[in-house]
């Protein structure tokens, strides 16, 4: 056949350590139909400071693959919520082959067409809280590339017609495809008039949606005569691929005929007619993919590139149990993103008769609905059973309803199908099912009522069970509970939702409490973080006593907003917010930096108010730019220290003596205060993690407040030499005023001049 190669690539993205599904990187691909091989080229490289990270440690990267919807992963082996079905996926771990780059290859032969999703993440780390910009972090970038090779002009088989084929000696196989419409209960593929050097040395393989593989449904035509392969309950509205493969080592050509018969379950005694006058009869797509094939609305041509086609006799009987029942549709009501309710006409209470199942269809839109959670709820009305021991079984299957025998209704499985089982009875009248990230398309729910007897379950007589049925699509499972937050995430044009847990809770729905914080622990951490701000009371008292009223006001502001910010910032249920979280965070950060600013300006003994206003404006701008950036926060503080250094240097030069002048000031105040502040910064930058945050950050509060008490300078002493002062006359008296006292720099106990002189 003729092959066409397509290439797809995605932009490199930075990977993060796994904490929840919200921390993974998701990549969306689309594989076209008739693809025979798909090759993913997985490129991973390190970066550090804009260059290759040769010094970065090797960290394993896990990649997950799934067709139809994102993978439901659980690398931490946490517990899923009750009644949750976990679909499978394939995982691959990449190891490093070069110091800064590695490449992995993942091949899929005959992949299913449609949407494919790749999820990648790093292993879970120790949860260290790093200061942004303190050092160049190692970044691990991941870029997937997809190369697909697909066949074109695959021959199409038409039900009821024979296709003749002659396989040359150098050819190994012939590939065909046939479209299976809705309400088809059986597909029968048959090889006729097979002639070769050794009888009929052919293998017949059939697979849905994609070309057959070595493990697909197969039949050896040498051992079976006639060579017929039957598939019960095929997928509706899909292509089925038929591969006729020659045995290895068979010389000479092989000629044969292939025909396909489709059984209409609405008419179990008849097959579908070989001639269909319009496309609506078969619901076939407008593109068949083969040159010279049958066009919709046209009569079958007398000849084709493969040979002649002519009708074959229709079978007059079909196996039992192929009767199908009407499928009741559901009404789709979209409330919000991933918030969709499916209403049943004349529902939500439905009647399940004893002699036949009740079948409903739920249609999930491609791409749009696969990022949420499909929820089903069955509630049995016990009063409708009239005292009978009735059990209602529900089978949820993808793309075809399961309406066969009683055993299949109980197990919800056949040789080729496996669905999700729900059951309700008099003792357990409620049943739920949750499917995270469901595959899109049609989901069929078949309800069947059976009575329990000594010999197992048998059809009931004259008992019609009434069941309340609820089906809906939600973003997350139970909105992630009280210890989680449901986040709506986006990767390119694809939306999906995931839970982000807190307070030590884990799991897909934040229901795993193996590492959860107790209420007492949450209360203790909240009290430590809040009450540690009381350490600012001594600096406030020292500032008021030394007449640093502006500084005292800033310390009070910092103490107030830091207390209530940490009361609102807690991950558990011990939370108290007096304002919006963003307002409290901004005020806490601004107060902390303003405390540093005013303390340093006070140490410089500079009085102009313009410096305080300048600091407030600079810090507000820095916090608005990046609230967690290191240099945006450290820059204004270094600027204030530079002002203080200039002021101290000027005083040292003018006085020809080191400033501050006394060794006691250096030994008992400045050095201890600087050491305490340095210890606080080191704890904050290098020791703080998510596990020890509540007590390390509380120690940070204590140390910062304590350093302010040491570093805040004492009140300025008055000057010993008093120059002549201008005199002001009033009411015949001269007022002798001490200029230093007027400026508030003199202690009242040491005031030397406070007299009233007679003019």
UniProtKB/TrEMBL annotation:
Compartments, record wording: Cell membrane
TM segment ranges: 516-536, 548-567, 631-650, 666-687, 693-712
Keyword Transmembrane helix: yes
Pfam families reported in the protein's UniProt record: DUF3522
Record region (Disordered): 291-311
Gene Ontology CC terms, in alphabetical order: plasma membrane
Domain EGF-like residue range list: 499-510
Source taxon at top rank: Eukaryota
Alphabetical UniProt keywords: Cell membrane, Membrane, Transmembrane, Transmembrane helix
Bilayer topology term: Multi-pass membrane protein
Signal peptide: none
UniProt keyword Transmembrane helix, yes or no: yes
Protein family (similarity comment): Belongs to the TMEM8 family.
PANTHER family: FIVE-SPAN TRANSMEMBRANE PROTEIN M83 (PTHR14319), TRANSMEMBRANE PROTEIN 8B (PTHR14319:SF6)
Designated name of the protein: TMM8B protein
């Amino acid at each position: 056949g003729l092959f066409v190669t397509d290439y797809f690539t995605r932009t490199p993205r930075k990977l993060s350590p796994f904490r929840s599904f919200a921390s993974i990187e998701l990549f969306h691909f689309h594989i076209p139909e008739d693809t025979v091989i798909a090759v993913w080229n997985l490129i991973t490289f390190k970066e550090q400071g804009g260059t290759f990270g040769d010094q970065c440690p090797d960290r394993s990267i896990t990649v997950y693959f799934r067709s139809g919807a994102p993978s439901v992963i659980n690398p931490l082996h946490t517990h899923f919520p009750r009644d949750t079905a976990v679909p499978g996926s394939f995982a691959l771990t990449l190891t490093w082959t070069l110091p800064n780059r590695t490449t992995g290859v993942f091949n899929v032969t005959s992949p299913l067409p449609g949407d494919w999703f790749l999820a990648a993440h790093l292993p879970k780390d120790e949860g260290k809280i790093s200061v942004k910009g303190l050092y160049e972090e190692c970044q691990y970038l991941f870029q997937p590339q997809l190369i697909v090779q697909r066949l074109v002009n695959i021959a199409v088989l038409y039900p009821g017609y024979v296709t003749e084929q002659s396989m040359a000696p150098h050819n190994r196989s012939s590939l065909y495809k046939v479209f299976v419409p809705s309400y088809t209960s059986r597909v029968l593929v048959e090889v006729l008039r097979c002639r070769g050097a050794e009888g009929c040395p052919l293998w017949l393989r059939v697979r849905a949606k994609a070309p057959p593989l070595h493990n697909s449904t197969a039949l050896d035509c040498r051992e079976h005569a006639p060579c017929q392969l039957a598939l019960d309950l095929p997928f509706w509205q899909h292509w089925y691929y038929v591969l006729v493969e020659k045995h290895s080592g068979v010389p000479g050509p092989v000629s044969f005929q292939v025909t396909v018969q489709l059984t209409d379950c609405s008419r179990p005694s008849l097959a579908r007619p070989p001639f269909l006058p319009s496309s609506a009869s078969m619901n076939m797509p407008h593109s068949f993919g083969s040159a010279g094939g049958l066009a919709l609305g046209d009569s079958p041509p007398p000849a084709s590139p493969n040979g002649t086609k002519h009708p074959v006799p229709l079978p007059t009987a079909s196996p039992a149990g192929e009767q199908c029942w009407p499928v009741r549709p559901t009404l789709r009501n979209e409330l919000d993103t991933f918030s969709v309710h499916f209403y049943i006409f004349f529902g939500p209470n439905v009647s399940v008769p004893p002699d036949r199942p009740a079948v409903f269809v739920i249609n999930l839109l491609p791409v749009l609905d696969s990022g949420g959670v499909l929820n089903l709820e069955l509630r049995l009305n016990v009063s409708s059973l009239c005292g009978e021991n009735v059990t209602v079984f529900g089978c949820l299957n993808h793309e075809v309803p399961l309406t066969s025998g009683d055993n299949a209704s109980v197990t919800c499985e056949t040789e080729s199908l496996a669905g999700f089982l729900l059951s309700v009875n008099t003792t357990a009248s409620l049943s739920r099912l949750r499917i995270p990230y469901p595959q899109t398309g049609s989901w069929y729910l078949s309800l069947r009522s059976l009575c329990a007897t000594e010999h197992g379950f048998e059809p009931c007589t004259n008992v019609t069970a009434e069941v309340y049925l609820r089906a809906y699509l939600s973003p997350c499972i139970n909105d992630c509970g009280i210890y989680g937050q449901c986040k709506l995430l986006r990767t390119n044009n694809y939306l999906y939702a995931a839970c982000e847990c807190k307070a030590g809770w884990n799991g897909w729905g934040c229901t795993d409490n193996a590492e959860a914080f107790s209420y007492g622990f949450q209360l203790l951490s909240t009290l430590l973080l809040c009450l540690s701000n009381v350490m600012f009371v001594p600096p406030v008292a020292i500032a008021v006593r030394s007449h640093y009223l502006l500084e005292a006001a800033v310390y009070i502001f910092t103490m107030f907003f830091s207390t209530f910010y940490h009361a609102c910032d807690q991950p558990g249920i011990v939370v108290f917010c007096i304002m919006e979280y963003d307002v409290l965070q901004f005020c806490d950060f601004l107060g902390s930096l303003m405390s540093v600013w005013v303390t340093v300006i006070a140490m410089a003994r500079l009085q102009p108010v313009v410096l305080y206003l300048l600091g407030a404006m600079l810090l507000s701008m820095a916090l608005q730019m990046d609230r967690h950036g290191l240099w945006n926060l450290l820059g204004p503080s270094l600027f204030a220290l530079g002002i203080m250094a200039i002021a101290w240097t000027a005083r040292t030069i003018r006085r020809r003596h080191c400033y501050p002048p006394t060794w006691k000031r250096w030994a008992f105040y400045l050095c201890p205060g600087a050491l305490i502040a340095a210890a606080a910064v080191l704890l904050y930058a290098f020791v703080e993690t998510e596990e020890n945050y509540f007590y390390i950050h509380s120690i940070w509060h204590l140390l910062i407040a304590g350093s302010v008490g040491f570093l805040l300078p004492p009140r300025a002493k008055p000057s010993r030499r008093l120059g002549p002062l201008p005199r002001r006359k009033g009411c015949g008296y001269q007022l002798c005023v001490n200029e230093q006292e007027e400026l508030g720099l003199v202690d009242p106990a040491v005031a030397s001049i406070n007299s009233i002189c007679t003019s």
